Amino acid sequence: MASEKNVSSIIQELGYEPKEHACIVVSYAPDDSLGGRLSHFFTLEYYIMQLCEKEIVFLPLQVIFFAGMFPKKEIALRIPYDTIRSVKITEVGKTLNYEVILTTDTDTIRLSVQKKEWSEFRSAGTAATGNSFLNAGAFAAASKDWKSINWHRQNLDSTFSLLQNLPQY
């Protein structure tokens, strides 16, 4: 997986202005219906959510993962800040996730975000560190500062703070 520096570089190449330490791994949060949960189960995809100067930008993780495949601007999903009406961040009971609900002029977007405390053992940490399943590589090769390589963990609090402090239009 790409480092946070590489993600920021790709976002800049697409013409956006990424904010520092405002990048995390997210997935779409399905509705609570059986169809929504099944759809999510079979199409579980992760995205990089980068807060930029004027908008939130989402890129599919697989685009970043294959570093040689630099995305075109059309691949990115962009939500301008001036279209956001509200942001709600809640801890999902009995899970290891948060739910982020972005309400815009026209839609409501529900995102699932893995908690930082367990991210080394889950997809967000694997994506953010570039290690294999359960980050076995991180434990085997890392020093006492092994948590410092997980930018999802490092950025979660600052990203949530920035989201909660967005101007509400």
Low-confidence blocks of residues: 132-144
Share of β-strand residues = 25-35%
> How much is the average pLDDT?
79
Order of helices and strands: HEHEEHEEEEHHH
Structural class: alpha+beta
The biggest beta sheet reads:
7 strands, antiparallel
The number of helical elements comes to 6
* Helical residues, percent: 25-40%
Strand order of the largest sheet: 4-3-2-1-7-6-5
3D shape: globular
Radius of gyration using CA atoms only: 16 Å
What's the total number of strands?
Answer: 7
Report how far the terminal alpha carbons are from each other: 35 Å
What does this structure look like?
With 169 residues, the chain is of the alpha+beta class. The protein is 30% helix and 30% strand. A hairpin with a 2-residue loop joins strand 2 (46-52) and strand 3 (55-60). The longest helix has 14 residues, at 151-164. Residues 132-144 have low confidence and may be disordered.
Write the layout of secondary structure elements.
Elements: H1 4-13, E1 18-28, H2 34-42, E2 46-52, E3 55-60, H3 61-65, E4 77-80, E5 84-91, E6 97-104, E7 108-114, H4 123-129, H5 136-141, H6 151-164
